[in-house]
Amino acid sequence: MKKLFLFLLIVPFLGFGQTPFNINSNNELTWSKVYDSRIDIESQLINLSNQKSGVAIYIRDIHSADLVVQHKDDKTRLLVKNIKSFTSLDDEPSLINKTVINTKKGEYRKFFLNRDSKVLNEIIERAVKSIIDESSW
Question: Are 77 and 70 in contact (CB under 8 A)?
Fold first, then answer.
């Protein structure tokens, strides 16, 4: 009975670790979301901008990403990849993959899951929503 009770307490918390971010087979960070309707937008380069203070440097200086739009039946999948930020002293933005992924293990770095993924998700969601809103006026 105690085991059943503990199981029932733990089950609701299992869903909290889910994230829209994935690591693909090339150890690249991607973000995806599926909509249950057809959204008529094109694949494109999107501009990302941070509006929060007190965040990690690579999120503070977030720059752009590629938005890939895929349609299947009456659903739309939005895939964001090649997320770039000014993470170094270079003049050009670079991919944030090495910053957020431990490439030897092929898994997220702990600080990304614990702290930065929520903020980065909000930035991407805001950019995607802006594009959807512009196309549906």
Answer: yes
- Rounded to two decimals, what is the model's pTM? 0.82
* CA–CA distance, 26 with 137 (Å, rounded to integer): 38
DSSP category for residue 83: E
Contacts 24+ apart (CB under 8 A), 88-94: 93/61, 93/63, 93/64
Q: How far is CA 106 from CA 24, 53, 96, 98, in A?
A: 9, 29, 14, 10
Burial of 31 (0-12, 13-18, 19+ CB in 10 A): buried
Low-confidence ranges of the chain (pLDDT < 50): 1-16
Encoded tokens for 91:
């003049």
